[in-house]
Design goal:
Barwin-like endoglucanases; 1215 residues; DNA binding; 44 helices; six-stranded mixed sheet; transferase; Rpb1_funnel_sf; metal-binding; single chain; alpha+beta
Length: 1215
């Protein structure tokens, strides 16, 4: 066997007949499989033990030699080698064909490879191969031409006329003769000459032919190997036959297909031996050809061969293709042992790094560890005894299990795994029952809830796997979301509500204005009922020594509530005392307005102070982010656990609940509705008099009702008591929002019809009053549409993620700095006047490409190639700077990846990215995972000025697939000034004239399009004239790549951010860069590239470098924008492309070219079973020897305090 990890690359090519014979262990001569009585394989049949190896370990067929003692002996009676039965998975056989046949992939694929090589049409080839026409292989001195087709009748006439002066042949033999006679080099020279003069169709066909001929010339493949003389037979264990209950057999379809080929081949041999009539032999040859076609790719030509129940049989091609094929089912995803699954329930008492594992499940998962430990502790005498104890669940087992699982993390996974946080590591805690307990804060990352969700558990076995799980995957480590760098473990629901209730303030509560000398005294006063949780009291600041107050503040009273004192106790020391949900309070200090001097009339001052808003969900998220920034992971996860406990405790104490009494009737509602009805009547009257069109009437009616609903919503907001339970739930961000409340207490409003357009009859009732029958029915459309939308969206979003992962899976951080001199000019992304993404969000965590100076003082804020931190980012924005040139993935020069400087900070850790990080996969997951939150609909703006604008998920797909967008905008091809805009009423268009620097251009635009330019505006090439989406390929043609990249980035950000989803720019940059990797060569100069071929940008630069070094002319090319599907299939790795889509086409092409896969990406390495070249699998991390560096005393560090830990270790060494 090959040593699995001992090769750098893998090559594919055409197999010559001799090669196929050299693989084989013997010829299969009979179609039989196994003997029906003895159930042993038939000799020389498809399962023959002599060819493929013994069916039982170390036992020959006749039973003469048994046991491993005889290993390697070939039995003299039955001829079977005594060896392991697993050789039946690797040994191949072969079948010698009585007549050659063509390989259907090379003849039928698009384009037909055989057709291109021979310069014949696929139809002509089909006639020859399937015995309909003869082909002239050598014309001799006759007037016939080579490759001329002759019908049976013409062939007989010419034979009669010219005798043996010419050679003609039929079937695969004829094609083989033509292929053998082909002089590839001469053809190539001829085609190169033709290219000098040819144009149009002729030229493009010549280029395609030249491409294929070059491929055969450069690889060691011979064209005649596309014709098969001998067929390989795959090992029997890969096409098994198993006995079912009741004595019947289930067999792989391949056995049926092989059997048909062998039967027909044997019959043909017999007919040839008998000198059967010519026509019978030809028919048999055609049937053999069809049988081989069905074996290789059933259904590719003609009707598929079917098995019982008219089911098409699965051929060799089907074994590779699709989700159930070899690549995706068995190589990219495998079933693993040491895993289990169960329903999840909430584990509110767990720590951030723990999960509850059912005892029985844990025992089964950790069985080998427990057994070893039982033997080592001498509780069991041997492994067998230990196994028995475990299976019987002996009393002695449980203590051992407790010790075994201590500090042995397990992985928890919830399907669908949309991003890397869908698999995290936790330390197991044994629990009774059969359900896995999950920490409530881990739910958001998994998108899990406890309504019956299931999760899978996996056990990392080796020490390395355990170390990786603990260091990289522990639940307590994954605080930030890789897509935007914001905390993913924010409290939700009850936890939010409890903390909101805890930090509320109220007027005139029991004991308002009381003074306390210490925190404990204030809490005691609350516990004894002297003050309320929400009472505003004054506490001496001196009793809070750990908080960063100013010297002035330390001599004063702090006005706060008992609830806030309790809330602040969970915060780390040195973190500012939180008295209000403001950024200043979070980052710097408690504002001075909450401090009172000694001797002040405290109750009076407090009663005049305005109430402060409590801390809602967003504020808690900001607090977590700030704590993470200041104190790193360990402290944050401890604080999160404390926040969770506090939330649960006080949401229970608050007793907040929902009853019908919480929904009060709105007095203004009848008045608002009356006014709306009056307006609608007026609009309808205007329409009846013919003053407005139907479309305008509809749009106005819709507008009136929307306005009425908004008015009711506003009235509700003002009338709502801040202590209303439902208000508190929605205001805190725990559950629900104002529009839910509007539907409960106001009106439901307008509904959409099944067609997607809005019905003009609104639902004026609300849920408290109850709906009429008609209203009930109208609202069901929306509900039904919602359900179907969600189902479709999930599939669409998953497929988008799959394509994104595929195109970017080989993008890995490969080096420190690529040394590029280019960058990206970052400004705030705006649509109209609305800021979609502010400048600060775009530059934080990126390296500056050029030094940034203060525009007034000229002092340096950030140096070139220095990372822009939050503080520096704020300084830049405060200085009024509107654009910064940053290092960007767009302009990175690293091949097969990105460098650290161009990527910047890793959003998941908040620190600089490490070499080896698989940033392509992270980018794909970050863009794909929120896909399900985007809308599916293309909105109908309805009425007058509107064409449908695509939004949400369809828009994201449109951008990444580089399709012609719906509602396309016209762009200008010249830079200049808008000279004139005139309307042509009869043609219903507007004509925009642009006076450029060199020439003047006019563009016709539909009359109802919304214009983006006016007369006198100055515009640049590629700017849109009207509203709509720009076609990216058009933009690339008229403008430069820089403008296209910025446009694509802006559009993706708009699609996501308009739906409230934030994604880091760098993820989109990684994707867009992958779409712009190829160039199309226009003039090859003195390089070896063919004109019109698509080639990788790096390879193009290399070829040009070679040409220039040898004093030749470089090639010229244009950048090509590929959609992600196309880009995935154009990758250098044939394994990655074949496992993505169009498997047969990719493999056909790769085999002809003799392609080599250098195993650079992740998928290729997973497929062949090597470690992936990312993360700890990178070369730089392997072969690290552990060494002792002294003992660290007292302090225990988390992995994120590495630098401190290293300093501490150095101190020890010095001691």
């Amino acid at each position: 066997m090959v040593d699995v990890n001992n090769f750098e690359s893998i090559q594919i090519g055409l197999a010559s007949p001799d090669k196929i014979r050299s693989w084989s262990r013997g010829e299969v001569k009979k179609p039989e499989t196994i003997n029906y009585r003895t159930l042993k394989p038939e000799k020389d049949g498809l399962f023959c033990e002599r060819i493929f190896g013994p069916t039982k370990d170390y036992e020959c067929s006749c039973g003469k030699y048994k046991r491993v003692h005889y290993k390697g002996i070939v039995c003299d009676r039955c001829g079977v080698e005594v060896t392991k039965s697993s050789v039946r998975r690797e040994r191949m056989g072969h079948l010698e064909l009585a007549a050659p046949v063509t390989h259907i992939w090379y003849f039928k694929g698009i384009p037909s490879r055989m057709g291109l090589i021979l310069d014949m049409s696929p139809r002509s080839l089909e006639e020859i191969i399937y015995f309909a026409s003869y082909v002239v292989t050598d014309a001799g001195d006759t007037p016939l031409e080579e490759k001329q087709l002759l019908t049976e009748r013409e062939y007989r006439q010419y034979r009669h006329k010219y005798g043996t002066d010419f050679q003609a042949d039929i079937g695969a033999e004829g094609v083989r003769t033509l292929l053998k006679n082909l002089d590839i080099q001469a053809e190539i020279d001829e085609l190169k000459e033709l290219l000098q003069t040819a144009t149009g169709q002729k030229r493009s066909r010549a280029i395609r032919r030249l491409d294929i001929l070059d491929a055969f010339n450069d690889s060691n493949n011979k064209p005649e190997w596309m014709i098969l003389d001998v067929i390989p037979i795959i090992p029997p264990e890969l096409r098994p036959m198993v006995q079912l209950e009741g004595g019947r057999f289930a067999t792989s379809d391949l056995n049926d297909l092989y059997r048909r080929v062998i039967n027909r081949n044997n019959r043909l041999k017999r007919l040839l031996d008998l000198n059967a009539p010519h026509i019978i032999v030809q028919n048999e040859k055609r049937m053999l050809q069809e049988a081989v076609d069905a074996l290789v790719d059933n259904g590719r030509r003609g009707r598929a061969v079917t098995g019982p129940g008219n089911r098409p049989l699965k051929s060799l091609s089907h074994m590779l293709k699709g989700k159930q094929g070899r690549f995706r089912q068995n190589l990219l995803g495998k079933r693993v042992d040491y895993s289990g699954r169960s329903v999840i329930v909430v584990g509110p008492k767990l720590k951030m790094y723990q999960c509850g594992l059912p005892k029985e499940m844990a025992l089964e998962l950790f069985k080998p560890f427990v057994m070893r430990e039982l033997v080592e502790r001498e509780i069991a005498n041997n492994i067998k005894n230990a196994k028995r104890k475990v299976e019987r669940m002996d009393e002695s087992v449980w203590n051992v299990l407790e010790d075994v699982i201590r500090e042995h993390p397990v992985l928890l996974n919830r399907a669908p795994t949309l991003h890397r946080l869908g698999i995290q590591a936790f330390e197991p805690v044994l629990v009774e029952g059969k359900a896995i307990q999950l920490h409530p804060l881990a739910c958001e990352a998994y998108n899990a809830d406890f309504d019956g969700d299931q999760m899978a558990v996996h056990v990392p076995l080796s020490d390395e796997a355990q170390a990786e799980a603990r260091i990289l995957m522990l639940g307590a480590q994954n605080i930030l979301n890789p897509k935007d760098g914001k905390p993913v473990v924010t409290p939700s629901q009850d936890m939010v509500l409890g903390n909101y209730y805890l930090t509320m303030e109220d007027d005139g509560k029991l004991g308002e204005g009381s003074r306390f000398s210490s925190v404990s005294e204030a809490i005691q006063a609350y516990q004894t009922g002297y003050v309320h949780l929400h009472t505003r009291v004054a506490v001496q600041t001196a009793d809070l020594p750990h908080k960063p107050f100013t010297d002035e503040q330390r001599k004063q009273y702090l006005v706060t509530t008992v609830g806030k004192l309790i809330f602040n106790e969970i915060m780390p020391d040195e973190f500012p005392y939180l008295n209000e949900p403001s950024q200043v309070n979070l980052e710097e200090k408690t504002p001075d307005k909450y401090f009172l001097d000694y001797g002040t009339d405290i109750p009076k001052v407090i009663s005049e102070m305005p109430l402060v808003k409590p801390f809602g969900k967003k504020d808690l998220g900001n607090i977590i982010a700030q704590v993470f920034k200041d104190f790193q992971v360990t402290e944050t996860s401890k604080m999160l656990d404390r926040m969770k406990n506090l939330g649960y405790k006080y949401s229970t104490i608050s007793g907040i609940t929902v009853g019908i009494a919480d929904i009060s009737a709105l007095e203004e509602k009848p008045v608002i509705l009356e006014k709306a009805h009056a307006k609608v009547d007026k609009i309808n009257a205007t329409h009846r008099r013919g003053l407005i069109t139907e479309d305008e009437r509809y749009a106005k009616v819709i507008e009136v009702w929307n306005q009425a609903k908004d008015d009711i919503q506003e009235a509700l907001k003002t009338s709502l008591d801040r202590k209303n339970n439902i208000f508190m739930m929605s205001d805190s961000g725990a559950r629900g929002n104002i529009s839910n409340f509007t539907q409960l207490a106001g009106m439901r409003g307008l509904m959409a019809a099944p067609s997607g357009e809005i019905m003009e009859l609104p639902i004026t009732s609300n849920f408290r009053e109850g709906l009429s029958v008609l209203e009930m029915f109208i609202s069901t459309h929306g509900a039904r549409k919602g359900m179907t939308d969600t189902a479709l969206k999930t599939a669409d979003s998953g497929y988008l993620t799959r394509r994104l992962v595929d195109v970017a899976q080989d993008v890995i951080i490969r080096e420190e700095d690529c040394g590029t001199k280019q960058g990206l000019t970052a400004r705030a992304i705006k649509v109209g006047n609305e800021v979609i993404e502010p400048l600060i969000d775009r530059i934080i965590g990126r390296y500056a490409r050029v030094t940034v100076r203060h525009p007034e003082t000229d002092e340096v804020i950030v140096r070139e190639n220095e990372i822009i931190t939050e503080d520096k980012g704020r300084q830049i924005v405060d200085a009024g700077i509107e654009e910064v040139t940053i290092r960007s993935v767009f302009s990175c020069n690293t091949q097969h990846g990105v460098c650290k400087h161009c990527y910047g900070r890793n959003l998941a850790t908040g620190r600089e990215v490490e070499v080896g990080e698989a940033v392509g996969t992270i980018a794909a997951q970050s863009i794909g995972e929120p896909g399900t939150q985007l809308t599916m609909r293309t909105f109908h703006t309805g009425g007058v000025a509107g064409d449908d604008i695509t939004q949400g998920l369809p828009r994201v797909q449109e951008i990444f697939e580089a399709r012609h967008p719906k509602g396309q905008a016209t762009i200008t091809e010249v830079s200049g000034e808008v000279a004139d805009i005139t309307e042509k009423a009869e043609e219903r268009t507007k004509v925009v004239t642009i006076k450029g620097e060199v020439d003047t251009r006019s563009y016709e635009i539909p009359i109802n399009a919304r214009m983006k330019v006016e007369v006198g505006d100055r515009i640049e090439r590629g700017d849109p004239l009207n509203e709509g989406s720009i076609d990216p390929k058009e933009l690339l043609a008229v403008s430069d790549a820089e403008k296209l990249k910025n446009y694509l980035l802006q559009e993706v950000q708009y699609a996501y951010r308009s739906q409230g989803v934030e994604i880091g720019d760098k993820h989109v940059e990684v994707m867009v860069r992958q779409m712009l990797r190829k160039v199309r060569v226009q003039d090859p100069g003195d390089t070896d590239i063919l004109p019109g071929t698509m080639i990788d940008l790096h390879e193009f630069k290399e070829q040009n470098k070679k040409a220039l070094m040898s004093g030749g002319q470089p090639a010229t090319a244009r950048l090509v924008l590929l959609g992600i599907t196309k880009a995935s299939l154009e990758t250098d790795s044939f394994l990655s492309a074949a496992s993505f889509q169009e498997t047969t086409r990719v493999l056909t092409d790769a085999a002809i070219r003799g392609k080599t896969d250098n195993l650079i990406g992740l998928k290729e390495n997973v497929i062949i079973g090597k470690n992936i070249p990312a993360g700890t699998g990178m070369g730089i991390y392997s072969n690290i020897e552990p060494k002792s560096v002294g003992v660290v005393s007292e302090n225990v560090y988390s992995i994120n305090d590495q630098s401190e830990a290293i300093d501490a270790i150095e101190d020890i060494e010095e001691d």
